[in-house]
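Data card: per-record layout.
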Amino acid sequence: MSSASQPLQGQVALVTGGASGLGAAIAAELAARGAQVALTDVNEAALAAADGGFIPLRADNRNVADVKAAVADLLARTGRIDILVNNAGISGYSRPIEAIDEADFDAMFGTHVKGAFFFAQAVVPGMKARRSGRIVNISSNFAMTGFDGMSHYVAAKSALLGLTKAWARELAPCDITVNAVAPGLVATPLTRDSIGTDELAKRARTVPLGRLAEPREIAYAVAWLVGPEAAMMTGQTVSPNGGASVVGI
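The structure for this 249-residue chain is written out next.
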């Protein structure tokens, strides 16, 4: 295939939470564009079931030792990591503030924020040495608009936007770009399990485009941000949400 059809040829991508749902769609799209893709996931059965020639790496985002071990394993196999997609996440479970306990709060921030931070910390030295790299954090449209009944989820996804801005400024001198993708609701098994099929259909009807995004549509946004066309994009948030929210500067 031509370099135009496989612009990520020769690059190594790491997608956290990549064994199913949105992460699997992102991994598949990056692989289709030529990248060698590794997946981390806490679900060993899902990792074992993943196909497509991916490198499976078992890691719990909440455990820094797991994060460091996964990155070290991948570097030992490939010698480099060019792309990091911090996708691993858990649902907000639509819980009111009174129902969120310490364990819920810690799991939410551990999975989304702690994991993203330490995965980035582990891959950045190699990116700096090569003076090249792409990091994409998967946030949420709710981080920009707020949402009732899941404040710990909104807070964690908002923290990812803060990390995106801080890292973009810090790493720009090394030609490492950092951006965020903040989808609206996406039709994934995790979303269906969280809010139910009926509620999902109800919310889809409120989207101006009349439907929820498919995982592959979010994957396209990620793939563009890590590709050559987005070389001047850093510190930005792209929100494929069908017009569910229209926000400005």
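Known properties of this structure: The first strand starts at residue 12 and ends at 16. The radius of gyration is 17 Å.

See the next section for split statistics.
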